[in-house]
Write a structure and sequence with these properties.
single chain, mainly alpha, two-stranded antiparallel sheet, 10 helices, globular
């Protein structure tokens, strides 16, 4: 029995080491590709191929698995897209690769409300940043559909952690809301450069969508914890987010993406 437990423990350590090595290796390979190949196509394909287990089941489970892994896919594809932004400094590309490695080995494997909420927010932030940093020549319908996918996937991921019975319906509503915001942002796209990094801009829609998701999370959590929406739980986040959006709209519409 003792020998068996030792064998199981050794296998567990070996499996964990292999997991870390493969995921850190994936992030490293993506960084190398940005230095050697001009097109992001191969890097995106590599990210998608890393999700091969999604389809390693019977076809009737494919759609369920795809939905369950969409947040991870959005984060991976978004980071690759950001790494390939024109004139992005090498140190920023390396930083994005490190962020992706941390995502793969630390945040993504976690479950529970707070971790899955953080994962959903990461999909919204990185997804909208990548989309509006690279879609200026795309048809508007593609951008709107992509925003719907980001909103639906993030909401579904968040609601799944609460075992919400109306998960699909609520996720579809949230996806539609982000799609409408995405349509407006397509014609009114502003971005804010990070200090010392003009090549990497934070789109205005990223800030608005994140604040809106923050308020939505507070409302939902209040309704779950108290069986109703407690005004005191949501009024401060709503007022803060609303005032911040107004200030951004009125005084910081200066850089067009």
């Amino acid at each position: 029995m003792v020998d068996f437990l030792k064998l199981v423990r050794r296998r567990s350590v070996w499996n964990e080491l292999t997991y870390y090595t493969l995921n850190i290796g994936l992030a490293s390979v993506l960084f190398i590709l940005t230095q050697t190949i001009q097109s992001p196509f191969l890097a995106i394909v590599l990210v998608l191929l890393s999700k091969w287990r999604v389809l390693a089941v019977r076809p009737r489970f494919w759609w369920t698995n795809i939905q369950a892994n969409m947040v991870d896919i959005i984060v991976g594809v978004s980071i690759v897209s950001l790494m390939y932004l024109p004139q992005l400094p090498v140190f920023m590309q390396a930083a994005l690769a490190v962020i992706y490695a941390l995502w793969l080995v630390i945040l993504k494997p976690k479950s529970g409300h707070k971790y899955m909420t953080a994962q959903a927010f990461a999909a919204v932030i990185l997804g909208t940043m990548a989309l509006y940093s690279s879609s200026y020549e795309w048809p508007v319908v593609i951008v709107v559909l992509a925003m719907y996918a980001i909103g639906y996937s993030a909401a579904r991921h968040f609601l799944y952690s609460y075992e919400e019975t109306q998960m699909i319906f609520l996720s579809a509503i949230w996806g539609l809301l982000l799609a409408e915001l995405g349509w407006l942002a397509y014609y009114w796209a502003y971005g804010y450069s990070l200090p010392g990094m003009p090549a990497l801009q934070v789109p205005q829609i990223t800030i608005v969508a994140t604040l809106l998701a923050f308020v939505g999370e507070r409302i939902y959590r209040s309704s779950v914890n108290n069986k109703q929406i407690v005004v005191g739980d949501v009024v401060l986040p709503a007022v803060f987010s609303g005032l911040l959006v107004i200030v951004i709209m009125l005084f910081f519409n200066s850089v067009v993406i």
